[in-house]
Amino acid sequence: MTEPLYIRIKPEDNVAIAVHKIAAGTEIMPGIVTREEIPQAHKIALADIPKGGAIVRYGVVLGYALQDIACGGWINEHMLELPEPPDVDHMEFGTNIRTDLPKPERTTWMGYRNAEGYAGTRNYLGIVTTVQCVEGVVNVAADRIRRDILPKYPNVDDIVVINHAYGCGVAINAPEAKVPIRALTNICKHPNFGGELMVISLGCEKLQPEMITDRTDADHLIVLQNYKGFENMVRAILDMADKKLAKLNERRREELPLSDLLIGMQCGGSDAFSGVTANPSAGYASDMLVAGGATVMFSEVTEVRDGVHLLAERCVSKEVCDRLSEEMKWYDNYLAEGQVDRSANPTPGNKKGGLSNIIEKAMGSIAKSGTAPIVEVLSPAERPSRKGLIYAATPASDIVCGPSQLASGITLQVFMTGRGTPYGMAAAPVIKVCSRTDMKELWPDLIDVNCGTIAEGKQTLEEKGTELFNCILDTAEGKYKPYAESYKLNNYMCFFNPAPIT
Ligand code: CA
């Protein structure tokens, strides 16, 4: 099979992207010759586009040409004017409800059953802090637990400390304070913590333990200001951890239906291949998971805003569509108060990777949601009440979206990247999926799945999507450990806080 020079997604597209760098003067298709060198992943004009003319990729208008662009020319981010985002007040819903999703071969998995809710993919002792002030003490205690206590309990994978910047010095009664408080409340119920949670409080902080958990008895809560000196604090944490680890050590994986699995999808450091290789592969895997009964969450408001009408078509009811509209408006307003809009999203790396603007980025980003119907729309860090494909309206920032999905209860995240990021989370394994083979070659020991083979014509989307589906289940079962998990590349938990800090 000859490797293609370019990828054109829809027949109506008047641009294609370069699979590799293309030299000037190359005839890429009959009658179309490159006028200059086209960098990898960047756009080539397939027709003369006059000033003001539409530039079309994915069958959608990415923008209007700011200058005449000749056929065979390179189109970069300086040549497009951004159109207005879709109106969210009058969206059609339910007009694209797909019922023939690809059927998965595996319909069960080995996980840790919980008394209620979704099952765990890992068996962790979770230690949640109520305030930043306790982090130093908790980290010292955690090191000692890992060194002296954890080895006695081989069935426990690790201990996970949820450190964060919230808890005090914040306007705790501000309306939007409900967002970080909800995140911390829900992280206490995380399926990978098996119900044996520990909460560490300072004592005088604004976020009092009872605001995030009903487990405020002496078996679950340690308040540092109640102890005489540092060593006694650490001793109390170690003693409680010992008891909880003994209980967690009794847990075993059981065969469970896919309906007990909740996973998240995210992308970061995207390029122009993300939307044709990595994200659609993730979408195919997502469709298989949903067809098998699992729940899959996707997010990132600014990266769906320009394609939100396409999501509305997949909403199963007016109620779900109205929630989608409500979340978009909340975010539009949030950005407007900061005197920006969704065009503030793309990064220098995205642009270097050929993504000219937020519309192009969004069209690629949405692909990771596959084609399944959307059964529920959530505010950031809410827990799903329905099974199937869920949209959770979080920021797109990797280190904010991740913890937000974690608070919603995801037990594994699939993370698509074009430019590369070593990102990971302590509380749930993160599978890294790249859009280009060059990325895999640059970071062979950080990228778990390479989707670049699709652009090279070596594998189909369906083959890659099925491979990723199997990788997701192998990871959920603990048979495969993604690189980020093996190296413990755990990012700080940056919980979304749209409320004022005092
Ligand atoms: Ca992201």
How does this model look, in words?
The chain has 502 residues and is an alpha/beta fold. It has three domains: 6-81, Archaeosine Trna-guanine Transglycosylase, Chain: A, domain 4 (Roll), CATH 2.30.130; 111-248, Rossmann fold (3-Layer(aba) Sandwich); 259-433, no CATH class. Helix content is 27%, strand content 17%. The chain has a seven-stranded parallel sheet with strand order 18-19-17-16-20-21-22, sandwiched between helices. A four-stranded antiparallel sheet has the order 1-2-5-8, with no helix packed on it. A four-stranded parallel sheet has the order 12-11-13-14, with helices on one face. Calcium ion (CA) is lined by residues 266-268, 300, 396, 398, 401.
Give the overall pLDDT as a whole number: 96
The domain count comes to: 3
| Dominant shape | globular
Strand content: 15-25%
Structural class: alpha/beta
Q: Unreliable runs, pLDDT <50, ≥5 residues?
A: none
Cα(first) to Cα(last) distance is: 62 Å
Please, what is the oligomeric state?
A: single chain
> Main beta sheet, described?
7 strands, parallel
Rg calculated over all Cα atoms: 24 Å
Which ions, cofactors or small ligands are bound in this entry?
Answer: calcium ion
Please list the strands of the largest sheet in the order they lie side by side. 18-19-17-16-20-21-22
**What proportion of the residues is helical, as a percent range?**
25-40%
Q: What's the tally of helices?
A: 13
Q: List how many beta strands DSSP finds.
A: 22
Short description:
The protein is an alpha/beta fold. It contains 13 helices and 22 strands. The chain is 27% helix and 17% strand.
